[in-house]
Amino acid sequence: MASGIGRASALLASGTLVSRVLGFLKVIVLAQTIGVVGSASADAFGIGNQLPNNIYVIVAGGVLNAVLVPQVVRAAKHEDGGRTYINRLVTIALVVLAGTTLLATLGAPLIARLYGVDLGDQELALVTAFAFWCLPQIFFYGLYAVLGEVLNARGSFGPFTWSPVLNNVVAIAGLLVFSALFGADPNGARTFDEWTPDKIAILGGSATLGVAAQALILFYFWRRTGLSYRPDFRFRGVGLGKAGRIAGWTFGMILITQLAGIVQTNVANVAFGVAASVATLQTAWLIFMLPHSVATVSIATAYFTRMSTHAANDDLAAVRTDFSAAVRVISLIIVLATAVIAVAAYPFSRVFETGFDGVQGLGNVLIAYILGLTAFSVLFMIQRAFYTLEDTRTPFFFTLFQVVLFVLGSLACTLLPVEWIAVGLALVSTVTGIAQALLAAWLLRKRLRRLDGRRILRSLVQFSFAALLAVLAGIGVLFVLGGTHQGGYAVSSVIAALLSMLVIGAVMSGVYAGMLRLMHSAELQTLTAPIAARLRRTR
Q1: Cβ contacts of residue 489 below 8 Å, gap of 6+?
Q2: Does pTM surpass 0.90?
Q3: Residues 206/175, Cβ–Cβ less than 8 Å
Q4: Once rounded to an integer, what is the mean pLDDT over residues 50-79?
Q5: Lower Cβ count inside 10 Å, N or C end of the chain?
Q6: Rounded to the nearest 10 degrees, what angle do helices 494-518 and 453-480 cross at?
Q7: Which of 106-110, 158-162, 247-251, 261-265 comes out lowest in average pLDDT?
Q8: How many CB atoms lie within 10 A of CB 197?
Q9: C-alpha to C-alpha distance for 303 and 309, rounded to whole angstroms
Q10: pLDDT grade, residue 188 (50/70/90)?
Q11: Could you give the 3-state DSSP secondary structure of residue 37?
């Protein structure tokens, strides 16, 4: 069983890693095409291209994650292996998504205004124009989620994580076409008047085309796993009513989270086109999400299906065991990732930005975000533990707790100097996220009666101590490479930045692994044992 989890996690991680690498390449190309820090073009596209994600998440995103996998696992016990349930669920999902996409696209001006309350006419017009081209992504995001989660629930993990590779390839091709036709603008100097309909269509349309390709390719993998979709509008008799009740709390949780996002975007808009703003926050968040997506999501997804099976059999002890194992393995990787990215934040930012002011602007936001990565990843696993128990009510309340704190903190950021607003927003996200994770862990402990807390805490202390020594070593290397001042080697070019990150990462990883080995870390041994065994077999 453990080896199966390991293989599934490795498959998920490999697909996610390739996708994220291409995603980074896409953002680098985007940065060279329209800029990042202080670019009105990048901020406008950032808002317009984020709108479909926000609306999709409100309508279906979290609901599908919370409900679909556990329900499909349970439906597999039906006489037909769950095929009736799957067809009916997909049918109702597509109907809802199609209707939502149509209404959202028609309402693009109103939605754009909601996320740009204080924007001027020119800024708002450009955001709205991008929104018209990007909002159809809602339907394809939903289609990708439904088809992919059904595949995951049936043990086919690869397609869900590998299909975004196609999305990134298509999007990168669109950006290259845009640059070839209209020229690159890495400093974000293109004026609003220069944004003609053909430029907007190619930039926004290629982004949507990538999402469509990502979703539609999954039909091929459905057929390979023996699934076939036939529209079925008979929604009674397969437990959809129960799924809807479960989803209600998740919908509320997603809704309040998106309300916080609206506040964040409008606060960030104070620096729109002037300093670090929406595009900077999105780029920093992409870097933040890289280790989370590769490690946390891959491991959690593989464990999630198994935990759902245990919960369906009322085996709380097995749920608790899997949760503890997942958190400890995830934390082993994420604590190191946090340390490395925090130290290498400026070289990392140099990959996206050319001037040192832009490097500092993006780097400071990244540091403020990354300090909350471990809590964010642990919280992700806690939420899934609740979902396996079919408890979406509790996650709603601990999310409400975080949202209230976040909104208050975000509004306070308007008092900061304009160049520090984005940093303040990222730091508020980190502080409130840590508070949310602590509350969520306490609530899960009550639900599972105990949480294997001592073992988890002992491992976190070991990881943190090893990471602290790794940080000291990494900072020494960063100073030697000149990564903290203008003209230093580590921030002199993209190649120099990448090489510097490799050196810093290698030194810090060596120190981290060495210290954990000295402390006889059980998690390190678990993680490295399969690799060591394979090496012994190849000798």
Answers
A1: 481, 482, 483, 496, 500
A2: no
A3: yes
A4: 66
A5: C
A6: 140
A7: 247-251
A8: 9
A9: 10
A10: confident
A11: coil
Residue 57 near residue 258, CB atoms below 8 Å: yes
The H-or-E segment that residue 248 falls in is helix 240-268
pLDDT tens-digit profile of 406-425? Answer: 999 999 999 999 999 999 99
Q: Are 391 and 336 in contact (CB under 8 A)?
A: no
For a pLDDT cut of 90, what percent of the chain falls above it?
55
Cβ contact 157:298 at 8 Å: no
Q: Which two tokens stand for residue 380?
A: 């992700």
> Are 240 and 88 a contacting pair, CB within 8 Å?
yes
- The full length of the chain comes to 539
Q: Are 195 and 123 in contact (CB under 8 A)?
A: no
Could you tell me if 39 and 187 are in contact, meaning their C-beta atoms sit under 8 angstroms apart?
yes
| Cα–Cα dist 287/340, whole Å | 12
Q: In this structure, how many other beta carbons lie within 10 angstroms of the beta carbon of residue 465?
A: 13
Q: Is 521 buried (19+), middle (13-18) or exposed (0-12) by CB count in 10 A?
A: buried
Residues 6+ apart with CB under 8 A from 115: 47, 51, 127, 262, 265, 266
Count of helices and strands (H, E) across the chain? 22, 0
Structure tokens at 482: 């000149």
